[in-house]
Amino acid sequence: MIDPVIDIVHFLASRKCSGRRTGTPGSAAAREYIIDNMIRAGIHPFAGINGYVHPFGGLPENARGSNIIGFIPGRGELAERFILVDAHYDHLGKYKTGLRYYPGADDNAAAVAAVLHASRIFIETESGTTHARRSILVTCFDAEEPPYFNSEHMGVAHFCKDFPGIIQHVDLAIILDLLAHRMGEGRVPEKFQEIFFVIGAEKSGVGPVLDEMQYAVKNLSPLRIGAHAIPPSGDYVPLQQYQLPYLFMTAGKFNDYHSCYDTAEKLDYPKLEGISNYLAYLLAVLAAADPKVFRYDRLGEDDLATLRTLQLIFDRMDDDEHIPKNQSAVDYIQKRFIRGDVDTVSKLENIRDFLKQGLQKCKKKGSLDHNERSRINYLIEVISRYMH
């Protein structure tokens, strides 16, 4: 039996791993620990490499990276197709002075724990079934953090380059990053703690599947947002050049992001358990899904799903006890986070009116125009400031 999620996070965020910087002893310690848990979960090594490790070089300062790749075999006519599920395991290493280091508990030890536990649950629940299903690639890619971020040096880019035949058989990649931090440090309503975002469904064809699963796990709120509404980030970015459908799951950046204070004791472990269960259920559904479900549409957009998510978030703000009784959540947001930005306020007019009109337009015409979409981007930035 693999370690509990809380133990996995605490080990990966410990001094033993010292920030898990690519090519360091701390990275090697983390890698050995993750592989040990893969073995105990019943995840097989990936064929074509030595054990679970896919080494690669060519990094700045002659560093060498090591991807971790596991495999859960499929069955029947779908066995040669793959779902890839990933959480990068590297982080920033030691602090520039003293004995301090960057723990990287939420970035990205928590997601590693979720992937391992979701894989274990999937294996256990699928063991007694006989239907055809896809194989699962369970990956913890290296070299996601700076100085490799969004470059050809990323571990996921090396995987794609070294295994082009496998990439051609991947129907969907699911990437997890920044999932388990407490939002607002107690300053926002409790219902906000349930939220995480699922990005990219409009480019992958699985939006309807996600909509059916919105209430699959109690006290958990997976909310869809269009990929165009956030800056490109994470292991999914290199996959786009291969026209590979993807989902990116995240709760967004937070106050302790990339600092020495991203520590294990601050995380929401019931939420992390819930995300593990959700991911296991999603894998089970997608592994057996009709091939027609999966497609890659580079220009795919779903403003309607994004607007519905924004509307739900503003509805939950109404329960915020920090908002004065004589103010609505919209008035509070505009006064606190958009104060002095007269041009933006005039463009947004009233937030709720904008959302209502936008929803009506999307239902009628299918999408917003460029100017209206820029307002969505700004609203997401404002909400992020409120939540974190």
Briefly, what is this?
The protein is α/β, with parallel strands linked by helices and 388 residues long.
Task: Give the integer mean of the pLDDT values.
Answer: 90
How are helices and strands ordered from N to C?
A: HHEEEEHEHHEEHHEEHHHHHH
Structural shape: globular
Q: CATH superfamily assignment of the largest domain?
A: Zn peptidases
Query: Strand fraction band?
Result: 5-15%
Judged by helices, strands and strand pairing, the structural class is alpha/beta
The helix count comes to 13
CATH architecture of the largest domain: 3-Layer(aba) Sandwich
Under CATH, the topology of the largest domain can be stated as: Aminopeptidase
Oligomer: single chain
CATH class of the largest domain: Alpha Beta
Low-confidence stretches: none
Query: How is the main sheet built?
Result: 9 strands, mixed
Provide the descriptors you would attach to this structure in a database record.
388 residues; alpha/beta; Aminopeptidase; 9-stranded mixed sheet; 39% helix
Describe this structure in words.
This protein is an alpha/beta fold and 388 residues long. The protein has 2 domains: 5-293, Aminopeptidase, CATH 3.40.630; 303-387, no CATH class. The chain is 39% helix and 12% strand. It is built from 13 helices and 9 strands. The protein has helices at residues 5-12, 25-41, 105-126, 155-162, 164-167, 201-204, 207-212, 269-287, 303-317, 329-337, 342-348, 351-365, 370-387, and strands at residues 44-45, 53-56, 65-72, 82-86, 135-140, 170-176, 195-199, 221-225, 246-250. Strands 1, 2, 3, 4, 5, 6, 7, 8 and 9 form a 9-stranded mixed β-sheet that branches. Helix 2 (25-41) packs parallel to helix 3. It is globular.
